[in-house]
Design goal:
heterodimer; A: Rossmann fold; B: 91 residues; alpha+beta; four-stranded antiparallel sheet; globular
Amino acid sequence: MRDDIKAETVTITGHGGDQIEAYQAQPLDQEKTGAVVVIHHMPGYDSWSKEVVRTFAAHGYLAICPNLYSREAPGASPDDAAAAVRAKGGVPDERLVGDVEGAANHLRSLPSSNDKAGVIGYCSGGRQSFLAACSLPLDAAVVCYGAFIVGTPPEGFPIKVTSLEPLAAQLSCPVLGLFGAEDQHPSPEEVTRLEEILKKQGADFEFHSYPGAGHGFFATDRTSYRPEAANEGWEEIWEFYGRNLGTGAN
Amino acid sequence: MCTYETETLNLQGSGKGAQGWFAVTDASVYFDHPVHAQSEHTLNLDFLNPALGPGARVALELGADSALALADAIKEVVAAGQRPAQVAPAG
């Protein structure tokens, strides 16, 4: 296949019927293919998140990243938007689910969609990817170093996150988890706990933890970037999505 | 971004951002990944006025040692500024 793509900013219908901004990329060849919703990390809808969207399209997938901060900070720079949302306690879970659903439906409506949709999220988006997979009918979910999927945040914790353990039984699709062995958010203990829960319920999942990598090892624009772990992680993603979203890509 | 450790507080003061001076009403203090500083984690300060929009923001990302040194310096300078002036006796 060729890796020619078209990338653009679009408006989609998110939670509650709100019109929100999103960044979309699609392969130029119109073969039927799967869709990937990219959930951006807590620093926001930034240039790296958009690069990830383009990477999925270059590998043959329809891809979109909704701007989860559209409502609080329309048109603001990503870091200002992230600061405004952090000060307000983060993105509510219910709204996240509605925005991911809107993004997945948007991609499924495109002519080259094969009706399959997956999700991937990084950092806070890793937890939100698991949340979406427990709340929506999806075909595949990738969790990249998401914290607070299990366990309870300390008392007085300012960001409104809760454990997703009560939702785990509703998981709708296979899960690929990619973690840094040196990360403390989530810690290796948290990752093991999640693994135990998924095993117990007979879920279809696979986890990989990379030695020498901490949090954010995929982020090429940060000092946390670990190319070896990131490259291995990308290979796992291509294999996992290829199997569950039904496209061969390259 | 993921220690999530964040404190928020109300402030009274002013800050100079990209659009010039504005009244600062809120601050966020958090230890997490920076946007610009080349460290895995920094102490991040956002001085904000939410009523004026997300762009009304002065941001700082400081290494942990720098942040603690700054906190000490602020306490010392504010205490010194609030002490009554010492007038040396004549002669």
